[in-house]
Amino acid sequence: MILGIGVDVVDIARFEATLERTPKLMERLFTEGERGLPVQSLAARFAAKEAVAKALGAPAGLDHREAEVRRGEGGRPELRITGRAAEVAYDLRVKRWHISLSHDAGVAVAYVIAEG
């Protein structure tokens, strides 16, 4: 059963300019394992973090680093949820996450489904 769904779109050039203007933002938004990726991949991961929050109902107190996008088997993206986000997911009885990322024509998009 689908418990929540989230989607987010990010303008890659605008996102890159924001990261350049505010260097400490990289550490506030991304885990150590996510840093160092190309900007379009970072933009897609940021979109995924926002989509996770939406799928959880946008509860207060979430940290962007609590949703980490990792490369799974065959390069497929996977979510690792920790902290407050994991607590909310547990309370909602989320058992599985589905994620899709894409970037093209200057935008990055992420879809996230929370399944129970």
The gist of it:
This protein is α+β, with helices and mostly antiparallel strands and 116 residues long. The protein has 4 helices and 5 strands; from the N terminus they run βαααββαββ.
Characterization of the model:
This protein has 116 residues and is of the alpha+beta class. It has one domain (2-115): 4'-phosphopantetheinyl transferase domain (Ribosomal Protein L22, Chain A, Alpha-Beta Complex). The chain contains 4 helices and 5 strands. A 3-stranded antiparallel beta sheet has the order 1-5-4. A two-stranded antiparallel ribbon has the order 2-3. A hairpin with a 5-residue loop joins strand 2 and strand 3. The longest helix is centred in the middle third of the chain and has 17 residues, at 39-55. The radius of gyration is 14 Å and the shape is globular. The termini are close together. 33% of the residues are buried. Mg(2+) binds at residues 8, 50. Residues 4-103 form the 4'-phosphopantetheinyl transferase domain. It comes from Nonomuraea helvata.
Rough shape? globular
- State the strand order across the main sheet: 1-5-4
Tally of separate helices: 4
For the record, what is the CATH homologous superfamily label?
4'-phosphopantetheinyl transferase domain
Q: Could you tell me the strand content as a percent range?
A: 25-35%
Question: Could you say which structural class the secondary elements and strand pairing correspond to?
Answer: alpha+beta
Question: Under the CATH scheme, which architecture would be assigned?
Answer: Alpha-Beta Complex
